[in-house]
Amino acid sequence: MPSSSNVKGTVAILGGTGDIGLRISRIFLTEYREHFPVVRVTTRDPNSPKAQELAKLGAELRRTSESFDDVLSGVDVVINAFNTETIEKVGKELTAAVARVNPKVYFLSEFGVDYRFNEFDGYEHPEWPRKRVITADTKAALEGSQTKLVLLVTGIFLNWLFQPGLGIDVEKNVYTSLGPASNRIATTAGDDIGRSVARLAVLSLDPATASTVPTDLRIAGQNVSYEEIRDAVARVKGVPKGEIRSKSLEEFNSNLKAHPTGNVLDYIWVLIGQGKLDFSRENANELVNPGQSLWKWKTVEDQLRGSI
Ligand SMILES: NC(=O)c1ccc[n+]([C@@H]2O[C@H](COP(=O)([O-])OP(=O)(O)OC[C@H]3O[C@@H](n4cnc5c(N)ncnc54)[C@H](OP(=O)(O)O)[C@@H]3O)[C@@H](O)[C@H]2O)c1
Question: Distance between CA 272 and CA 184 in Å, rounded?
């Protein structure tokens, strides 16, 4: 049982066939179905295998080309899981429709780093200024409405974490940090992001708990260091503990400033080096999953064992 609350609502998941959208859609359609008997998912192609998988689970498929007023009609919860490019294309119409329909809660498409604290003066990766504009426009459009806007930051997707571009080379068994290898990286599995969104939706719909859900919040299934990833790989794969290397954060960051690469991994690697992806001191894990009583957060070790 995901929750003792008996609230029920209708949810629309925009981009619900996507990388993170699919994980969120599945969780609403299965573990949280008792709270959300109607789950609408937008797609450009209702015949795609992912859309069809969701339809079989009971999703009401709606074409992205339909009017958002129709798609969102009668909806209590809107989850925007579009990528930034799509939001820039449809955002004005979408936000105007959200303001008209007035759902109880609207999750903007965040699910990444906490870029509020970025310090890339004059050389920031363009993804984050674009997201800031989307957030500002959405806040302005919803000003004075009853809709609660929620910006959920989740760190790096767990299935996206093992990347040589972040210094995590599992194949070569080499782990390269910018600065200390004890720096931690917030990471959350897609299904746990789905569970967190679903749980926040339930809390937001229940009048007894609605006020406990803040606009800005971050979660992390695990805050894991380079050393801990190295150790987990050794345990799971039965290989010797890999090599830890450390590069100068200052040097890498100055080079990035002088020659911006446009590769988002370079910027995220700096954020990790600066400790800005360590969510262990401030997170809403206890709000969404008190004492892990609702589910056990997936870890790097689970990902390596392929048990996700
Ligand atoms: N933390 C991390 O590690 C991480 C990693 C990646 C992304 N993210 C974040 O997660 C959020 C969602 O990104 P995502 O990668 O999951 O999205 P995505 O898979 O690229 O897109 C989501 C869905 O949007 C629809 N779509 C794509 N392009 C479209 C277009 N031009 N017009 C209309 N619909 C379109 C597609 O559905 P149909 O094909 O069914 O129409 C797609 O399945 C973003 O905010 C992103 O920044 C975080």
Answer: 7
Q: What is the 3-state secondary structure (H, E, C) of the chain?
A: CCCCCCCCCEEEEECCCCHHHHHHHHHHHCCCCCCCCEEEEEECCCCCHHHHHHHHCCCEEEECCCCHHHHHCCCCEEEECCCHHHHHHHHHHHHHHHHHHCCCEEECCCCCCCHHHCCCCCCCCCHHHHHHHHHHHHHHHHCCCCCEEEEEECCEEHHHCCCHHHCEECCCCEEEEECCCCCEEEEECHHHHHHHHHHHHHHHHCCCCHHHCCCEEECCCEEEEHHHHHHHHHHHHCCCCCEEEEECHHHHHHHHHHCCCCCHHHHHHHHHHCCCCCCCCCCCHHHHCHHHCCCCCCCHHHHHHCCC
Chain CA centroid to CA 262, Å: 21
Taking the centre of ligand 1 as the mean of its atom positions, its distance from the CA of residue 28, in whole angstroms, is 18
- 43 Cβ below 6 A of ligand 1: yes
Q: Is 112 in the pocket of ligand 1 (CB under 6 A)?
A: yes
Cβ within 8 Å of residue 213, ≥6 positions away: 105, 148, 150, 200, 203, 204, 287
How do residues 262-283 score in pLDDT, each as one tens digit?
A: 999 999 999 999 999 999 999 9
What is the distance between the alpha carbons of residues 229 and 232, in angstroms, rounded to a whole number?
5
Nearest atom in ligand 1 to the alpha carbon of residue 18 is 43
pTM value surpassing 0.70: yes
Closest to 24 in 3D by CA, of 3, 41, 6: 41
Distances (CA, A) of 240 to 47, 70, 173, 299, 303: 47, 57, 9, 20, 19
> Tens digit of pLDDT for each residue in 160-177?
999 999 999 999 999 999
